Known about the structure:
This protein is mostly helical. It has helices at about 10-20, 25-45, 50-55, 60-70, 75-105, 110-115, 120-140, 145-155, 155-170, 170-200, 210-255, 285-295, 320-340, 345-360, 395-410, and strands spanning about 265-270, 275-280, 305-310, 365-375, 380-390, 415. It is globular, with a radius of gyration of 28 Å. Residues about 1-5, about 340-345 and about 420-425 have low confidence and may be disordered.
Amino acid sequence: MKLPTNDNYTNQEFYQKMYEDSDITREDLIILTCAIFIASIGLNMNSQATIIGAMLISPLMSPILAIGTAIAIYDQQLLQRAAKTLLIEVGLSILVASCYFYFSPISHASQEIINRTSPTIWDVLIAFFGGAAGIIGARKKSVNNIVPGVAIATALMPPICTVGYAIASKNLAYMTGAAYLFIINAFCIILTTIAGVKSLRMPTKQRVNAQPRLAKSKRILYIVLTILIIIPSLVSANSLVHQSILEANVKNFANEELAHTTIIKQSIDEEKQTLRFTIAGNDFTDQKIQDLQNDLVHYGLKGYQLKITQIAELSQLSGKQFEDYINSIIEANQSNQLANKNTDNDDSTENAIVLSEKIQQLSPDTIQQVTVATGYQKDQWLELVIIQPKKTLSADEKKQLSKKIMKRYPEIDQVFFTDLNQKQQLN
């Protein structure tokens, strides 16, 4: 289908636009640096709106469209110019993002970062359709929202920032996953740009009709590269679908079999095929737990082992039991922090880690470690903070620090210190 020409650039005008956009200027570098900082902060703070803003002002799309145009019309000069610009921009982006995350006090991987580390076939489809829309939008003379929309949909900026995070945190898995996502997006945009420019019948810079073998070889190369890029995303998509089905089955089990039970936390260990539930109260007998184990098969969870941890109300615990309970929370928190280096966390764990880091910043000279947990007392859930001080604190120092924490974070109900020999609440 031939595109209307009244609102479109002519072939010559479009080529000139691509040529000019493929150049890199000082203003582009400044804008790119600002966009990288904004995107990195958005990823660090788990702010989707901030990330979208960074994608809108990023100049990364222009050289990618220029590369596709250059390949389509066999323009070696434009290809070298655009490729050089893209390499400089990507290199600068990774450098800036790595520096930001290296010095950032928040070191854990937010959900927005994790989302950029496991590309699937859906990311490939988004990039294909986004690239197709992008070449149409780039050819229009009038201001339109197509190219900005493509920038948001294909998300070129966040994967590069995630690579920077992975370098700063020395996480190879995150780096390869995020780099793969960027390659998917860039390659698919280039591929659809080639197809779009070919459909416009723009004149080529070299005579290729006399070299049919070369043209055929390039088509084969495109097909092979496309297949190689798509295959890992299909494997990842299959894993994601399997994970979604497993989580749905666990949710159905919890809703049906634990409907009248307050679940504090649940986790799934696929490698060990274990389901873990932490629940309030101590009403489950060994026989009840065994019956629940037998019911797993009815929810598509055959082969999984059920582990249930019961927590009594805080008011029912003796001094020694309370101390053991606090110590168990600290040990679990340390295990979660260790696991966080290689695995994903749910939102509640992620929020607890963020809050712990913020509380520690309130008095870094005094606080060695902070653990955030949930307690159950008199039919109410309490937000607990457990402080491990760097030095022995007096009663007044504990009281002042407790008040400071609870004033800054009103959602916290109780603050405890690990050097207590008996149960103590500071208000």
